[in-house]
Amino acid sequence: MVDEEAEALQDGRDWLEYWHLLFKVTVKDIEDFQKSYKNSEEELADVKAAYMNFKGDMDRIMESVMCADYTDEPRIREMIEQAIKSGELPSYKAFVKESEKKKMSRRRRAEKEAKEAKKTKDELGLGGESDLQALIKSRSRDREKEMDNFFAQLEAKYGNGVKKGGKKTSAKKRKAEGTA
Fold first, then answer.
1. CB hemisphere CA count around 123 (13 angstroms)
2. In terms of CB atoms within 10 Å, which of 5, 53, 59, 150 comes out highest?
3. 135 in any annotated domain
4. pLDDT category of residue 163 using cuts at 50, 70 and 90
5. Mean pLDDT, the chain, whole residue set
6. What CA–CA distances, in Å, run from 103 to 57, 66, 108?
7. Hey, what's the torsion of the CAs at 125, 126, 128, 131, to 10 degrees?
8. pLDDT digits (tens, 9 = 90+) for 17-57
9. Residue 150 belongs to some domain of the structure
10. Is 15 inside a domain boundary?
């Protein structure tokens, strides 16, 4: 049964094309979603939920809210402050008494991550949608090679050997027969 499934997975199908048939998401779709999501009721609900879940910890709130980066923090902080003033949200010490040092640390960390992401993007030569497709195909090929190596190692370890247990068993029987 496993062999049949493995054959079905390696039928020569272009998985990237299959993925695109199932999920037709483009970079423009993502950008459009970001534009419609930011400052929406959905984002406000997500910010409030994150505030409650993380008890006012802005580090974790900023990490969990979709489409948010460090430049959005003042806007998100304002949303939370308004909800606290209106009584929709409780006032958590972690939020109200957050130190400037912690805010600056979060900002520096986000700026560093943004620089690393830009550097990686430039190293990989990503700029548009076709570049993203090339990266996906490249990673898919790399994973395929890794799996081939893994299966080759398993085959070398378990597939080509002679059964060793039979000799030991027969030797034990001979010894038992000789002592009896």
1. 6
2. 59
3. no
4. low
5. 81
6. 11, 19, 9
7. 80
8. 777 777 777 778 888 999 999 999 999 999 999 999 999 99
9. no
10. no
Total domains in the fold of the chain? 1
Signed CA dihedral, 168, 171, 172, 173: sign only: positive
Q: DSSP label at 158?
A: I
Whose structure tokens read 């990490």? 63
> Which whole number is the average pLDDT over 117-139?
73
Helices vs strands, H then E, count in the chain: 10, 0
Q: Which two tokens stand for residue 78?
A: 């304002």
Residues 6+ apart with CB under 8 A from 106: 58, 59, 62, 70, 73
pTM of this prediction exceeds 0.85: no
Q: Which range marks the domain in which residue 68 is found?
A: 31-124
User: Which range has the top average pLDDT, 68-72, 85-89, 105-109, 153-157?
Assistant: 85-89
DSSP string, 19-37: HHHH----HHHHHHHHHHH
- Structure-token match 């909800």, residue found: 83
The pLDDT of residue 39: 94
Give Cα 107 distance to the centre of its chain: 22
3-state helix, strand, coil in the chain (%, to 5): 75, 0, 25
Q: Which residues contact 135 (CB under 8 A, 6 or more apart)?
A: 124, 126
174, part of any domain = no
